[in-house]
Structures are given as C-alpha cells and as structure tokens.
Amino acid sequence: MIRNFKVEDTEKLIQFIKKENIVDGDNILSDIESDDKKLIVYDEAGIRGFVYMSVCNKETKRYDVNLYVEVPSRRKGIGTALYNEMSKYLQEIKPNLLVTEFSVDKDKEASFYKRLGYKKWFGCNELYYRGIIQPNVDIEFVPYEDKYYDQYVKLVKDCFYELRKENDIQPYSIPANKQDRENRLKSKDSIYVLFENEQLVASIFVENGNLDFIMVTPSYQGKGYGKKATQFGINKALSQGAKLIQLGALEWNTKAISLYESLGFEIVQTVHFYRQFGEK
Q1: How does DSSP assign the chain, residue by residue?
Q2: Per-residue confidence (pLDDT) for residue 106, from 0 to 100
Q3: What is the largest CA-CA distance in the chain?
Q4: Do domains 2-95 and 142-243 have the same CATH topology?
Q5: How far is CA 269 from the centre of its chain?
Q6: What pairs with residue 38 in β-bridges?
Q7: What class does CATH assign to 2-95?
Q8: Backbone dihedral angles phi then psi of residue 148, each to the nearest 5 degrees
Q9: Confidence of residue 85 (pLDDT cuts 50, 70, 90)
C-alpha cells in the first residue's frame, strides 16, 4: 500500500535506512515532519520503499527528490508507483527544478530517472580517511574572524566560480551580503585560514570529521599549499576525536582526487546528480 509517512513509521524507516545503507539517512530523518519535506512510503508488512522530497531553495523553487526501494522488491513497479504518487504533489507546487542523486553502484537508477525525463548534471566522489595523524605542516592556519570576510569571499570566488559555472551549479559566486557574512561568523570555529604577507592564500573547513572548502588562491596553487591544508584538516579532525574523516570532490577534479588519495583517502562511492527542469 502506498501512503503518506506517519510518525509511527519512524522506527521502521530507521531500520530500512540502516538495512539499505542509505548515506543520506540522517538528513532524511532530521525534522522529518517539516512543511519543507514530504515522504511517501510503500508499506507491505513493513516499509519496502519510499520517495522523499525536500525543499532545497524556496526562492528558485528547487526541490530534491530521492527514491529508495529495497533490493528484493525492485523491478516490480514499486519505484514507478511511488514516484507517480509523489508527482501528484509536485504538480501542485510546480517546481522549477527537480534534483535527484544516487550512487553509481546501484543497479538501473540512471535508466529509471532518464525515463522520467531527468538528465545527468554532475558526479561527485565521496572519500574517507581512516589513517593516522599526518606530519605537522610548517605553516600556521588561524581561526576565521569577521575582519577576513571580504578576502574570504574573494578566495571562494577565485577557487570555485569556474568550477560551478562549468557544472551549472548556481549561484556561480557566493552572494556577498549580510546574511552570508553572518553565516560565516556562525561557522567561525570550523573555518581556518592561512595568510602570506597579509594576503589570504588558503582555507579549509573542518567540522565533525568533515573537510570542505579546501581552497588555495590561484597564484599559490601548485606549491604544496593544498596538500598542507588537507594535512592540517586531517590532524585537526583527529584532534577533535574524529574516527572517520570525509570529504567530497567532483569527478572531473582529478588533480584534487589524486592529492587526497596520496594522503590516504579512499573513494567509497561516486554519486551522480540528475536534474529535470519544470515548465516555464
């Protein structure tokens, strides 16, 4: 039976997520009854599959939709039935953009979404580090402060603008405004920056075992700063008690992936993002 998720389904959903090893499980379970989320389940003596929708950006009307069916129940029309049920809701809200993601080792997902009108957007490798502490770096990263904001925004633009444009990930540049500045300040304990002659040349984000925004200003690239920033991030995460360190890298960014692998990271899965535009 296909029906809307109910609170009493929570434990069954948790069991399903663990059994199917769904990487995004924590996000699905977080604030699951929010108005910005909708979940429909296929219940037959337990949850056999579900489709999940969340609001990614209200202003642009981007919605993320992901569908999961347990392995023994696949190729029985359950996935199609679940998506058709979610489509009734999507027709009411009229999204401008739908995005889905799935691991490339999952069987037949690409062809399933292509039949629904989705096209591949980009791919991202997820890498894990399970190693020991790295050699101490000979440069000093310091915690982020609000006075660095203008330089920080410029560093993000210099490092990510072309990458985001190449993959049509909008906005191509971070909107430098009051809200963004406040968000950076809230994350100040997780952002570390490096200066050379008062110029911001590198930065890294470290939080709960996750490394992100590993950046080196273009004029300093190729000089080992990316490696040192990553080593600093590994050691910082380990000092904070992390047992597993994670980061992501776009598939085509082979230089960064080679660097991470040389330090002991391993690719654990590759996720492909597919999208479908709504009617204008």
Answers
A1: -EEE--GGGHHHHHHHHHHTT-TTHHHHHTTTT-TTEEEEEEESSSEEEEEEEEEEETTTTEEEEEEEE-GGGTTSSHHHHHHHHHHHHHHHH--SEEEEEEETTSTTHHHHHHHTT-EEEEEEEEEEE---PPPPPSS--EE--GGGHHHHHHHHHHHHHHHHHHTT-S-SS---SHHHHHHHHHTGGGEEEEEETTEEEEEEEEETTEEEEEEE-GGGTTSSHHHHHHHHHHHHHHHTT-SSEEEEEETT-HHHHHHHHHTT-EEEEEEEEEEEEPP-
A2: 58
A3: 66
A4: yes
A5: 13
A6: 53
A7: alpha beta
A8: -90, 0
A9: very high
- pTM, two decimal places: 0.84
Average pLDDT over residues 146-174: 88
- Give the residue among 33, 42, 86 at the shortest CA–CA distance from 64: 86
Q: How far, in Å, CA of 274 to CA of 246, rounded? A: 23
The string of pLDDT tens digits covering residues 197-254 is: 999 999 999 999 999 999 999 999 999 999 999 999 999 999 999 999 999 999 989 9
At position 140, the amino acid (one-letter code) is: E
Does the pLDDT at position 1 exceed 70?
yes
Domain boundaries, the chain: 2-95, 142-243
Q: Which two tokens stand for residue 79?
A: 């996935």
Residue 58: pLDDT band with limits 50, 70, 90: confident
Under CATH, what is the fold of the domain 142-243?
A: Aminopeptidase (3.40.630)
CB atoms closer than 10 angstroms to residue 63 = 23
